[in-house]
Amino acid sequence: MKNILLISVLILASTGNSFSQDYLGLSSGNYGGIQSVMLQPANVADSRYQFEVNLVSTSLSFHNNYVGLSRSFFTQNFFSFKGYDNFSDFKAKELRKDDYLRENVFVKANNRINFPSLLLTTGKNSGIALNIQSRTGISIENLNPLLAEQAYDEWGNASLYGQNYITDGLDINGLNWIEIGFTYGKVLLNNERHFLKAGVTAKYLGGVSSFYFNSDDLNVRADNDSMLYIQSPEIRYGHSATNISAGINSSFRPDASAFGFDMGLVYEFRGQIENFKFLKYDSDYNLKVAKRRDRNKYTFKVGVSLLDVGKFNFQSTPEARNFSINDQINLNTINTKNLKDLDAVIADHGTYTSGAKEFSVALPTAFSAQVDVHLYRGFYINGMMYKPVKAFNNNC
């Protein structure tokens, strides 16, 4: 039980809304292809590629405000996990925690796997893309820093024994889903110097698994390295039938289905468009002016997009219900390997208050703005803003 709690905190802490943008750098680059369409659907139109196939790719992001890796792990070990006796040895040598943190801890992890996908330019003014993905996001918000420190020390920090770790507003969420998206983009305006294109992605969403655990009034106290006292008048707790770590069930049917969308606009100012024109013969051997499709022609471009709009309705398992708790737990007698084991611990130490047969989970809806400025020849400067939109999931 100690190791499970520690690993949960550290993996998540090494790993905010709960999700962030994936494929940073690549997704906002000039030649991002399939990856750029996930950030800005309009990029499928007027693409530099006539045809692109992505066989498989993945993006993993994790961040927190409590624990980090030492510089030597990158400069001397070069990201290698070899040469450590065990996890405790790795933690002592390479992990660094913030001993002076006074604000609540947040920990977040995101993973996106792209399966075979394609982008196709369908004409001078349009393009399409098909994208198949598996996505996972896990987040912890408002974790008491003293509780985080005690968990990091594997409940062995004697200086913190007997202290109450008041954790108001603790919020833990996880979601794993698959999505199949079809993107269509079209050029709306091509007036020499002024260029505008738009795109939209329609998505089928398959919710594989989800869980939540949150409380407005949670009190935790460690009396020694094994005895943990937990008190809360109500903890809201629920999860889908499939564990977040187990993958899709044996029937290959998701626990929930829904539809969603992305949409975006891109404006380009082409101040030096004359530099990209050339003469060529048409099919009737008449000479005409054409523009190079293989080059970026903008002086600067600005894009805006609304991403991941959608919501799942999961059926909660009967064993996962809201509960109150006022009890001591001996960590040495508990071994939790999955959510079902956690359900059994709650049943032994808590009192059920209510149970929802269904719960809603919104996708990590976000607004993004992108700016790209051409400096000189092959040099560009790029900036991107990615902000969660709470209005889409306040009621979930």
TrEMBL record:
UniProt keyword Signal present: yes
Signal among keywords: yes
Signal peptide: 1-20
The entry's keywords: Signal
Pfam families xrefs: DUF5723
Domain DUF5723: 41-386
Protein's recorded name: DUF5723 domain-containing protein
Organism the protein comes from: Taibaiella lutea
